[in-house]
Amino acid sequence: MTTPVWMSSQLAVNVLDARSLLGAFGVLGVGVVMFAETGLLIGFFLPGDSLLFTAGLLCTGNGGHGVGLSLGPLLVAAAVGALAGSQCGYLIGRRAGGALLARGRSARLHEGARRAEDLLGRYGYAKAIVLARFVPVVRTVLNPLAGALNVPVRVFTVWQVIGGLVWSVGLTLAGYALGSSIPNVDRYLLLLVALIVAVSLIPFGAELYRSRRRAKTEEAGG
């Protein structure tokens, strides 16, 4: 029995490649990925930043590869997926407590949880919830962690909506603006995605540098 061509293309999708996801699932895929990355711990590895940026770029028709997306539905799908996912993650954490994170075996996931807890302790609820949106992995684990730590529902909801809209809509429009202003921008897509990933890792690097400096200072003082 042969598999239909459209089904074969979806089964062969690379979930780590933004263009592959968009080519297989379109706008619907964006919403699902946003929900999974921000609401389900198993989605921590998904390419949220690069997916939003690439999707916005492809709305201009300059991204090539036969992928055509409409900006309006894309913005709605991205925002709804990001906001609903975050709220779902919070509710899961509120019900399951820290047990859910404790069961995870991924070292990267546990590191993200530690950084998320540091964010909440250092910057307070509002600022931490907004900043976490822009840090891979941390934006996945902070939501259930906030629920487990009993962050007030109203406070979490207000700030996750603000952060979620700035992140999802902002990155999508950034891709759209760049795609509209640069002809044949597809030639530079891989470089642009790599740049986005590098920028998203800056908070991790800065925090790691500060942690090491703090540790050295404490050792010298001790």
Automatic annotation (TrEMBL):
Recorded hits in Pfam families, A to Z, give: VTT_dom
Where does this protein reside within or beyond the cell? Answer: Cell membrane
Question: Can you tell which superkingdom this protein's organism belongs to?
Answer: Bacteria
| InterPro entries xrefs | DedA-like, VTT_dom
Segments spanning the bilayer are: 21-46, 66-85, 155-176, 188-206
Q: How does it sit in the membrane?
A: Multi-pass membrane protein
Q: Which segment of the chain is annotated as a signal peptide?
A: none
Keywords, alphabetical: Cell membrane, Membrane, Transmembrane, Transmembrane helix
Q: Where is the VTT domain?
A: 46-176
Which residue spans adopt a coiled-coil conformation according to this UniProt entry? none
Chief place where the protein resides? membrane
UniProt family annotation: Belongs to the DedA family.
What is this protein identified as? DedA family protein
Question: To which species is this protein native?
Answer: Streptomyces javensis
